Amino acid sequence: MRQLTVTIPDDFYETFISFFKHVPEVSINETQDNEIPLWQQEMVLDRIKNAKPEDYISWEESKKRLNAKWNK
Questions:
Q1: Can you spell out the DSSP letters for 4-66?
Q2: How far is 30 from 18, CA to CA, in rounded Å?
């Protein structure tokens, strides 16, 4: 028997898995190297939901603030 590692687009995942589930003697081991924990996803979504327009700043302003803080 051989082992194969495949990287596929997220929108093709369900189709791919459903096809191989019906092949005899195939085992599917799913891993995601960069998986974000559910608690962290929920925290970010909660912060986005509760954010006010004045909480957002442009990238340029953000960069200025970071430079001012770290490049004294």
A1: ------GGGHHHHHHHHTTSTT-------TTPPPHHHHHHHHHHHHH--GGG---HHHHHHHH
A2: 13
Residue 58 forms part of a structural domain = yes
* Residue 4 domain flag: no
pLDDT digits (tens, 9 = 90+) for 23-63: 888 888 777 677 788 899 999 999 999 999 888 899 999 99
Number of structural domains found in the chain: 1
The first and second tokens of residue 20, run together, are 């191989």
What's the pTM value of the predicted model, to 2 decimals? Answer: 0.39
By residue range, what is the domain housing residue 35?
10-70
Residues counted in the chain: 72
Q: Name the nearest CA neighbour of 6 among 36, 25, 26, 69.
A: 26
